[in-house]
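Notes, p. 3: input format for complexes.
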Amino acid sequence: MSDIKIDITNIFDFVPESKIISMQEQISKCHKTIINKTGKGNNFLGWVDLPEKLDIDLLKDIETEAKRIQNIAEVFVVIGIGGSYLGARAVIEALSHNFANILDDKKKPKILYAGNNISEDYLSDLLDVLDKKDYALTVISKSGTTTEPAITFRILKKHLEKKYGKDNAKKRIIAITDKEKGALKKLSLKENYKTYIIPDDIGGRYSVLTPVGLLPIAVAGFDIHKLFEGAKTMRNISLSSSDLNLNPAAMYAAARNALYINGKSIEITVNFQPNMVFFTEWWKQLFGESEGKENKGIFPAGVSFTTDLHSMGQYIQQGVRNIFETVISIEKSQKNLKIPYDNDNLDGLNYIADKNIDYVNKMAELGTRLAHVKGGVPNISISIPEINEFYLGQLIYFYEFACAISGYFLGVNPFDQPGVEAYKKNMFALLGKPGFEKETEALKKI
Ligand code: PA5
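Output follows (446 residues plus 5-phosphoarabinonic acid):
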């Protein structure tokens, strides 16, 4: 049975239950399309069987490498953008102490992220930190040619070589890239870096269970076997039936598409735990890049409650009624902290004295749901028992599978991202990259 529970009863005021039930046949077709690999982009379905085809030697190798890094580095820099970093960051931040980077845990390197922007200030500040720390890095790029990580790697490679000498620097660099294509592959071969391969049939945003996510997660000190176990559990559930009542991913895909058809074109994923913020970021990329094409697709947004109830909460309660919410609900918190009794009670909080903070958070969650549904915002709830590797593995696979079904339901290829090239073409033309002369000329005429 699935540990992930989906509750769609709070959308029935907007989309009748009968509508959802009537979608079963179409959802089953999409399910079959994935299983039989007959849909658009079917050469990018490697993630479907990944948890089943677990390569135990690869996992062990990653763990050995992670231990080696833990012994030589206080800081581990993950260089990558989009699917080449968001999955790792989502899992690491969800599992980490909220203040991990200022805690003094000598066994675990602090994980920093770079190559996901082109900010001179960000990179310069990073160098300030790295001047003073022992560090190692991984550079992750499937294409091996993405500008943001390439610029960052060029700078950090030189920094590492200056700091440790050319030969020692090599031991602090791990490349994760295509098995044969791209500049990063060439460079890794030339420099003899430790290298992991991103399988051909897995795109960036579906790659968290490949070395792309696994190496950083293992270096951060988390159990990649359990993550896989969770994914495997959800794979079995997702593949064995397309029945909306048995397959939570199918139900989620049906519910969000029913809402979309009824004019709810923005989905806001909500968390009530700050360490889930990057999980939402990963989800945003997964769904945004998979579905937003051909002038179609739900716009994926994210908020953190109760924080954003004091900012975006106003809009969600009373703004344009084209939104729905999906709350990722965590049933049990990891820690135990109660509100103390106070004799003076000047803040008036004695009515919740002795209650756990998480109880108050849960009441905020319930109260918010009631208010938002009443205000015209349908609500889907997706809950996991607690945050750990096993349940996160389930949640990752759940979302990946749901995204594939949902994309096929929408009629798009959920595995390509042609629109991402447009900004690159203009940027290269503006920068005068060889091969873009025609584009440069065209831009000059604007
Ligand atoms: O999901 C995707 O395919 C993208 O987000 C890519 O992961 C991102 O653009 C980075 O590409 P690459 O790994 O080739 O550097």
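The chain has two domains: 5-23+244-408, 56-223.
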